[in-house]
Amino acid sequence: MLLISRGAPRHRGAVEDGSELLIVILMPCLNEAEVIGASVQRLTSIPDPGMRIMVIDDGSDDGTAAAVEAIDDPRVEVMRRVPPRARLGKGEALNDALDLVRRKCAGYPDRRVVIGVMDADGRLDPHAIAEARTAFSSSRVGAVQMGVRINNRFHSLLARMQDMEFVIFTEVFQRGRRRLGSVGMGGNAQFVRLSALNALGPRPWTRSLTEDFDLGIRLNATAWTNEFWPHASVHQQGVTSLRRLLRQRTRWFQGNLQAITLLRRVVRDHRGWGRADTLWQILTPYMLLAGSLLTLSFLITLLTALVVTVLGWRQPWIWVIGAYIVAFGPGLIYGLIYWRIERSQGLGVIKALCYAHLFVLYGLLPSLYGWRALARAVTGRTGWAKTAREAEPAPESEAAPP
């Protein structure tokens, strides 16, 4: 995938004028008063008259709606969901908002309306909306996913690992999937033509715990092309508590397990290398669970070799070197890729290589939360509390990356 990612995408199509697009950004919120005001103000600082912002208050009881209504911008509106329709999941909130968008945009051609999805803590780069218009200039592109960065990566080592994770995912895997035709969608900075969403039916988002992953797979089975756009990013909060991170990733892992129901659709409707890669994505959590047993065995062997070395017993050093290369070789490559992206922010190559070693250990976390996710899936538990946010100050003037 690393080699494939270095090439340019192959899709073509007629060139369209992206400046004529109406971009409607949906922001589902459940008790997001800590961050939503600052996030919406950053969006309104982008001087694009063809952009609309719809905040979906999904039954909040903390003043989320009031924080948005205090913002004086005609492009912003709040959609309130109340019981019994509230708090049924992000997918249901997006579907209800989409129904409203369809009614409000009835006079626009479906292919000229783009639906963006952002999290409540999302900070788009100031040029991101202009880049979205450029990305949709190809008539074949039905969906665009931008990169994701962690804005508090400078203040938390755990947040730094999450930033490295997202950078590697986008720079290697998403870039590679541009050529394979299997680009995935994320829950933040996802942009989809209304006509592409309509191809999936009246309610395109499902109740999956990872409705974004599910949507991306089904969009790839349509005549539209999913595109990853590396020229702009959304910046979001990283989780700074290991306990909360494990809970968040357990939910994500369980959502990926749910995607097994899409296997038949992928085999039937996807084509070429894109089909093979999508099957790989769906089966990855199951392979990670199986691989975690081998990982445990490898760690025990590595620890034994370390103890033997400390005790001064003789052993073939070629084995130790080989084990190090197997364990940390890919991580070192990822560290150099991350350094290339982050060096403009002052990251040195030595520090990047240190992060690479930590990133390998960070990559062992699925061995912890994966089995918990499987247990929840087997016992039919699908309810989840949202990940808590940390308060952020409102911007002084315009949206800007950290």
UniProtKB/TrEMBL annotation:
The chain crosses the membrane at residues 286-311, 317-339, 346-365. Gene3D superfamilies: Spore Coat Polysaccharide Biosynthesis Protein SpsA, Chain A. Keywords: Glycosyltransferase, Membrane, Transferase, Transmembrane, Transmembrane helix. The keyword Transmembrane applies. Pfam families: Glyco_trans_2_3. Residues 115-329 form the Glycosyltransferase 2-like domain. This is Glycosyltransferase family 2 protein. The lineage of its organism: Bacteria, Bacillati, Actinomycetota, Actinomycetes, Actinomycetales.
